[in-house]
Amino acid sequence: MDYEKIKLKDGVTIHKINTTKFKTNLFAIFLTTPLTRENVTKNALISAVLRRGTENYKSQNIIAKELENMYGASFDCGIDKNGDNQVLKFYVESINDDFLPEKYNLAEKSLKLLVDVVTNPLVENNGFKKEFVDVEKNTLKQIIEGKIDNKGRYALDRCFEEMYKGEPYGLYKYGYVEDLDKINEVDLYNYYKELISNCKVDVFISGFDMPNSGENQILDIFKPRTANYKVMTNLYIENKIDEPREVIEKMDVTQGKLMIGMDVLKLKKENRPAASMYSVVLGGGANSKLFQNVREKASLAYTAGASYIKAKNSVLIRCGIETKNYKKALDLIKEQLNQIKNGDFSEDDINSAKQLILASYKSIKETQDGEINYYFSQELSDEFVSIEKNIQDIEAVNKEQIVEIADKIALNTIYFLTDNN
User: Fold this and answer.
1) Burial status of residue 127 (CB atoms within 10 A of its CB: 0-12, 13-18, 19 or more)
2) Which numeric CATH code is attached to 3-222?
């Protein structure tokens, strides 16, 4: 088996992906914690501050030189949102020793550097280095304020914010500007110690000829931890809301952005493949109903698509339209929803959707990052499903199951970003 999961202790897991497809080894550490309004900005800031320097590598320049000495290894980090969880992600990618002129133990050095960045930050006066925190606060402020520049992404975030108002998933993953002034280097470091002691830790090792010492190295670092971590898994939605929310926001835009968030009610685990198929039949490609009918035939949308968000049991429709066509586009979209509910789609539609989903599953192993993210999503799910089983489940989906999903669809939020006229 090319995937092996090793539970070192509660909340600390190593995932080994044995593959000879690539000349590189990829190492990743993911720190997962529940999304909260109180800590979302701190988590985003920590992921940036940690990359600035450690007790052993006291600046980004020193880290960069070390990576250069490791035959041009690369380091990256970031913040993500998975369901109601916030994830701090750290990566080191390096060439496998088999492709080097001499044995260099590069895999071991790479893992050691990555662990050092995550667990051994540079500390001054009982806090993070003030310079690091100040610079990254300013950078994070620019990221948060700049989210409005990408209107499509902004509309998507605003739809989720309205759809999940007062819930964790509605939070912006980079946090909020008003919280930044309240954060100082000492408080942030104290919170970091709390985070590293209580979060879920997943270490991914992708490649071949991996060092066996990695497990002991990681276990020694996290040995003092107690099992206090908590991870939020898939949401089961019992009832639809009384009335779908309609939110219209005006801005200086040349193209309207229409987002429609829908709940999939009372969805059981075994029905998730059919929910994926439903979203693709609706708006997953050039053969989908949204693309063919809203974009091509009616010419009401520049872009039209849909996606299934498994971690929230929801389906999201995204359309770029002329602002004057809002009502027409919305009515036609609702018509497509009713057509699927009435079984008004063909076996060709089903086969096209299957080919699209199967191609995406088969491509997972084509990149190391893609494979890591797949296994991580399974780790955070309430049930592990292999790539092969997912492929089998999609192949088995029939028309009746897709119609059954259509019956479970309930409109939650309609968000429209329009012009100032």
Assistant:
1) middle
2) 3.30.830.10
